[in-house]
Amino acid sequence: MNSTQPAWDRDTVLGIIDALKHKPGALMPILHGIQDSIGYVPPDSVPLMAEALNLSRAEVHGTITFYHHFRTTPPGRHKLEICRAEACQAMGANRLVAHARKTLGVDFHETTADGAISLEAVYCLGNCACSPAVMVDGELLGSVSQESFDELVGTLRSQP
Amino acid sequence: MTIKVYIPRDSASISLGADKVARAIAFEAARRGATIELVRNGSRGMFWLEPMVEVSTPEGRVAYGPVKPDDVAELFEADFLYGGQHHLNLGLTEDIPYFAKQQRLTFARVGITDPVSIDDYLAHDGYRGLANALKMTPADIVEEVTTSGLRGRGGAAFPTGIKWRTVLGAQADQKYIVCNADEGDSGTFSDRMIMEGDPLVLIEGMTIAGLAVGATMGYIYLRSEYPYAEVALNEAIAAANARGYLGDDILGSGKTFHLEVRRGAGAYVCGEETSLLESLEGKRGMVRFKPPLPALEGLFGKPTVVNNVISLASVPIILDQGGANYQEYGVGRSRGTLPFQLAGNIKYGGLVEAAFGLSIRELLYDFGGGSRTGRPIRAVQIGGPLGAYVPESQFDLPLDYEELGKNDAMLGHGGLVVFDDTVDMAQMARFGMEFCAIESCGKCTPCRIGSTRGVEVIDRMVEGKDRPKQVILLRELCDTMLSGSLCALGGMAPFPVLSALNHFPEDFGLAEPADKAA
Ligand SMILES: Cc1cc2nc3c(=O)[nH]c(=O)nc-3n(C[C@H](O)[C@H](O)[C@H](O)COP(=O)(O)O)c2cc1C
Ligand code: SF4
Ligand code: FES
């Protein structure tokens, strides 16, 4: 086992695998279950899934890496996703993205130095009549300006 | 008397503050001792008016919007519970021209009912299609859908009845209904609005599909970007199960249909039906070769109907009012209605359900009111990231599958993304290639590698490095992608790129129309 990886609760993960492994095509629900519960899919959990589902580790690893949504490192305290797709671009999403990169001091798939915010890109949140759109910890926001973005970041930084 | 007050639970409305307004109204009503019943409905789809609050009055529902939490006390002062005058009073909701001009069939209940209430659904003609279907033979159900002329609303416009007939005819111990709720196209949100605003109509449509082809299990493959839809769907499925509309013995008929929501994980290509099936099986979303067709060997190798949300949600009204009635709407081979979606830089953005055949211009100006920034509209991308950019000179084209196709454009899932004259079309073309590179499943070289090369060629063009040669290169690259790709991601990514180049050569630093310059 890789000792540089942060500790995660093995029993929680085993519990999730056990509860879902009987489902047809169980791997995706299990991966979601793990990430919903502990924020990411620890690489060390791959053998547990492989064994329970009778798959090779390579198959499990291959599935995890295919999807943009799954992450294999712990996220910051908050997940901030900015829509980069066309309708949001038509309303200035690229300027919002540049502003976010500059003020947060990180690029996409990175976490701010204080551990508060992980910045992610998404391609459409289904809020294209209220662009630019942003999602924060699963909560959708619309017509986001640089000012409302700064306010939001301030709130997130002050929250645990 | 208890007064019904409606505030959407639709996520776009919530993104503009609907939850806060709902709390403020509940608080203010309690403080004033007013007895109200707060219903969290779907959105009517007029997003510039959201959060839009409606109250029922003897004359009909009166709308107020856009309401901010700070407006709430004032609304109570103005007697809004009885339709009182206030500057946010929009009159009777159904008289608002944007809404009144529509032909709502699939969206008949969205914004009207409580999305997860079976009783409300029944009170508004819900489950009449299923009641009819339960009295019909599977072949007759398929025939009714064929008669309606319904074609797949996911983009490819394949006749739904023919797909169902193939699955009905397949012999197997297990068949599946899979709903494609991946809605990855930018500028589209009609699937989301149905799932959040009237999930029971999708459940009813899937149940009818199950009866029609002999499938007892259904999956809704829902993109992970739609958490609010997941909640609404699961609440509605639980309600349907509790009342016997789903389960082992549907309404005592002896027929079985079970339904489960499965979440995607942020991959555009998983909207492609075979990639979606791989994903449902727990694998990487690699596109499969066809044949075999999913209709014969689909999920877990079994015969499977894969249909878009809107296709399935249009089935109940077809079974209720008859296929002949549905096909009276529309033009040419595009029958029925389509929920069009106005998005991007548009003043009145939202959902417009109308019969096929209205023009792009009518949608953009009569409904949409022009750009939100007030500047001239320069280009509209129709049909998602694989759809062409349409210039002003083509705005009189009718919205119809064949007519757009003849003009190298496509209707797809019916989303229109509007850009004003500040748009840089070379950058949009570059993004088209970049998006293809990010989302490629990696199976074919033209798509996986070609898209990255495409980004580089456009960059060189914009920098002015030997432009005529780059134009030739870009066109050759697009040809290779068009002919050498397994699925439409690589096969259609050239459409937005070429349309940008052909209609807006000046943005690429080319003086003349690009084909001449080359
Ligand atoms: C790259 C790609 C993405 C697609 N995305 C979607 C989607 O998000 N939703 C959808 O319904 N169909 C999508 N499709 C079309 C599906 O492959 C398929 O045609 C559709 O689900 C069939 O259902 P329908 O006949 O009811 O439209 C996509 C196709 C491709 C090639
Ligand atoms: S065209 Fe692209 S997305 Fe489609 S199968 Fe080929 S590599 Fe995969
Ligand atoms: S394009 Fe940004 S929400 Fe759809």
TrEMBL record, chain A:
Coiled coil: none annotated. It comes from the Bacteria. The lineage of its organism: Bacteria, Pseudomonadati, Pseudomonadota, Betaproteobacteria, Rhodocyclales. This is Formate dehydrogenase subunit gamma. GO terms for molecular function: 2 iron, 2 sulfur cluster binding; metal ion binding; oxidoreductase activity. Binds 1 [2Fe-2S] cluster. Signal peptide: none annotated. Keywords: 2Fe-2S, Iron, Iron-sulfur, Metal-binding. Belongs to the complex I 24 kDa subunit family. [2Fe-2S] cluster binds at C83, C88, C124, C128. The keyword Metal-binding applies. Its cofactor is [2Fe-2S] cluster.
UniProtKB/TrEMBL annotation, chain B:
It comes from the Bacteria. Keywords: 4Fe-4S, Iron, Iron-sulfur, Membrane, Metal-binding, Transmembrane, Transmembrane helix. SUPFAM superfamilies: Nqo1 FMN-binding domain-like, Nqo1 middle domain-like, Nqo1C-terminal domain-like, Thioredoxin-like. Its cofactor is FMN; [4Fe-4S] cluster. CDD domains: TRX_Fd_FDH_beta. One of its GO terms (molecular function) is 4 iron, 4 sulfur cluster binding. Residues 426-471 form the NADH-ubiquinone oxidoreductase 51kDa subunit iron-sulphur binding domain. InterPro entries: NADH-UbQ_OxRdtase_51kDa_CS, Nuo51_FMN-bd, Nuo51_FMN-bd_sf, Nuop51_4Fe4S-bd, Nuop51_4Fe4S-bd_sf, Thioredoxin-like_sf. The chain crosses the membrane at residues 200-222. Belongs to the complex I 51 kDa subunit family. This is Formate dehydrogenase.
